[in-house]
Amino acid sequence: MATLINTLWQGLWYKGGVGNWSYQFHRLAGLGTLLFLAIHIVDTAFVFFAPELYKHALEIYRHPLFMLGEIALVAGILYHGMNGLKIIVFDFWPHLWNHKNEQRANILIYVATFLAWLPAAFIMGSSLYKHSILPWLGGK
Amino acid sequence: MSVMTSTPTVRKVSVPKTWDTRLWQFMRWSGVLLIPLAWGHILIKDVVIGVHDIDLEYVRREWATWYSFWRIYDAALLAFAFAHGMNGLRHVANDFIHNENTKRVVSWAILIGWFVISAIGATAIIGGVR
User: Fold this and answer.
1) A49 found inside a domain
2) Phi then psi for B129, rounded to 5 degrees?
3) Structural domain contains residue A63
4) pLDDT at residue A68, rounded to an integer
5) Chain-chain contact of A30 with B130 (C-beta, under 8 angstroms)
6) Where are the domains of chain B?
7) Exposed, middle or buried, A20 (CB in 10 Å: 0-12/13-18/19+)?
8) Which residue does chain B place closest to A7, by CA atoms?
9) Would A8 be classed as within a structural domain?
10) Measured between CA atoms, how close is A108 to chain B, in angstroms?
11) Mean of the pLDDT values across residues A54-67?
12) CA distance B118 to chain A (A)
């Protein structure tokens, strides 16, 4: 048990610093997106296999907690895409790859992800407010 | 004392064309493709339209118009995103598995899972809304 915990922990934190955080976020965002995607493929396939169940799936999609999850998913997909581009650029043009550029790129990606996520989160949040929070408050 | 005059050496490394090499390349190329595909999908469905305006009729209409453009778009998304994700899962899993046999079993399980779910999605895209 102690060995297992040690293995998991070292697998998570083998270097530390900004680069390690980016590596962690990249994996977390990727795995989270994959989990969503696997479910999403099957529930969308209901349009062919079981149209009645698709309506039920949509109800789950419209649940306020699920909508919150989607707002987080957008952040994950934006981050994973931008960080993935960074990995591709440094892999294909290795002369650009040094510690300073890596760190600069990582910070730039945090900022760019946040800025791109803000308007999307605002629009999705407004939809959540209009469809879930307002009716719950007794509004129209 | 030896003088350390290091001249940059150019190494020619021949990379064997194994499955891992191909998958490494696939991760890069599909990754670039997924920027417009996945971001576009999320932008349209979650931000512009929103889940409250999506229903069976919406999907039926979308897949029927524009010479099936969106159906092909969804097929591309299914093909590239899910394979990209499942191979990513294999990479993460391999980081934590140190036994070669376990690695093989897990890799096969991921491959089968990828195939089954992809087949379900592909059948629905080809079959269309019922």
Assistant:
1) yes
2) -75, 130
3) yes
4) 94
5) no
6) 19-127
7) middle
8) B96
9) no
10) 17
11) 92
12) 8
**Mean residue pLDDT across chain A:** 90
Identify the CATH number of the domain in which residue A53 sits: 1.20.1300.10
Measured between beta carbons, the chain B residues lying within 8 angstroms of A56 are none
Q: Is residue A13 part of a domain?
A: no
Closest chain B residue to A84, measured at CA: B31
Give the whole-angstrom CA distance, residue B89 versus residue A34: 8
User: What is the third-level CATH fold of B19-127?
Assistant: 3 helical TM bundles of succinate and fumarate reductases (1.20.1300)
Neighbours of A70 (CB within 10 A): 22
Q: Which residue from A37, A62, A87 is facing B85, i.e. has the nearest CB?
A: A37
Provide, as residue numbers in chain A, all residues whose Cβ is less than 8 Å from the Cβ of B82. 34, 37-38, 41
User: In chain A, helix, strand, coil percent, each to 5?
Assistant: 90, 0, 10
Out of B43, B88, B130, closest to residue A34 by CB: B88
Total structural domains within chain A: 1
Mean pLDDT of B20-48: 95
Token readout for B65 is 């118009």
Q: What is the DSSP string of A67-103?
A: HHHHHHHHHHHHHHHHHHHHHHHHHH-GGG--HHHHH
